[in-house]
Amino acid sequence: MADHDSPVSIHGGGTLAKQIVTAEEGGHWPVPEGTILASGVRRIAALTVDIVIVTTILMVATGGQIIDAWNLTFWGSSDFHYSLAMAVIILAAHWLYWRLTGLRYSRSLGQRMFGIAVLAEDGSEMTSKMWDQRALRKLIFLIPIINILQGIRELMRISQRHTHQSNIDLYVGSIVAHADSLPPANRKHIK
What we know:
Layout: H1 16-25, H2 40-61, H3 72-75, H4 80-105, H5 109-113, E1 116-120, H6 128-138, H7 146-160, H8 167-172, E2 174-178, H9 184-187
Antiparallel strand pairs: 1-2
Helix pairs in contact: 2-4, 4-6
């Protein structure tokens, strides 16, 4: 058997187990030991809090007229432009909220309440462009019925991936983790 080649060959050194883990990481930041990635349930709870915060502010600021964005009677009438205007206000307000809280705190207020933070895949602070893209893609969760379908799809993706990344995370290049479990060097920008 000494002159027979082995059917299993390992290229690049290391054990087979290390190579499998490296292949699964797919180039992602090697999550430091002790880091806890955020679950889908915690992330949905934080998203819900964010939507309640922004919608409540809009309700107060518009004297309750923001509700016209969901009024199907208005959408079907010649006054549909009121509903359209309110829908645009809702989308713009949420986009600004997610972008600005992300830039300021490296997470939204809902995520802060639940102790989670958003990082770039390499463990560094996210850039302004990344926050723009993330905020824009989260707007789909504001569209009735589509938000439920998209939420189920994202929850499935989070639970299927070892990095707990949603499709938005993959597109933007972000990872969501428990802020307190991150190494000090990776949480210095998180407020």
